[in-house]
Design a protein that fits this description.
This protein has 5 helices and 7 strands; from the N terminus they run αβαββββαβαβα. The protein has 141 residues and is of the alpha/beta class. A 5-stranded parallel sheet has the order 2-1-5-6-7, sandwiched between helices. It has a two-stranded antiparallel sheet with strand order 3-4. Helix 1 (6-13) packs across helix 5 (129-139) and helix 3 (80-92) runs parallel beside helix 4. It starts with 5 loop residues before the first helix and ends with a helix. Residues 12-104 form the CoA-binding domain.
Length: 141
């Protein structure tokens, strides 16, 4: 079983989820993660600046549009420069937990997380939701 940290449990215990980085390309990880949530009947909202719907779900253009941001965990599958902006928004609206999928962070993103006291709210530096998500979900039962 994977190392199930408190932030991972907090992440998957949320009543709502958002995915930043899903697209019309079903082979990309953002869309695969969106489909992971759908397959498990999680309440998920895709975030996309241009698309109106993804995988049959209505999108929002930014996490600032989330109806319940303090109850929403956010999966991020974006280039690091985009990730940094999302983290800043997430901090401002008090998102409880964020999961940066592998490749969504760089040294600047990690420095921002540490300097802004977000280490206990952000999963980064390795594990993928697609690999660990089911184990974490089972641990919450």
């Amino acid at each position: 079983m994977s190392d199930i940290t408190p932030v991972k449990k907090t992440f998957l215990a949320a009543p709502y989820f958002a995915v930043v980085g899903a697209s019309k390309d079903t082979t990309k990880y953002g869309t695969r993660i969106l489909k992971w949530y759908q397959a498990r009947t999680f309440n998920v909202t895709p975030v996309h600046p241009k698309e109106k719907e993804l995988e049959g779900l209505s999108t929002i253009t930014a996490i600032g549009e989330l109806p319940s941001p303090k109850e929403t965990s956010v999966s991020i599958i974006t280039p690091p420069k985009v990730t940094l902006g999302i983290l800043k928004q997430a901090k401002d609206i008090d998102i409880p937990a964020l999961w940066l999928q592998p490749g969504a962070e760089d040294a600047e993103v990690i420095e921002y997380i540490k300097e802004n006291g977000l280490s206990d709210r952000v999963i980064y530096g390795g594990p993928c939701l697609l690999v660990e998500g089911d184990d974490i979900a089972r641990s919450l039962l």
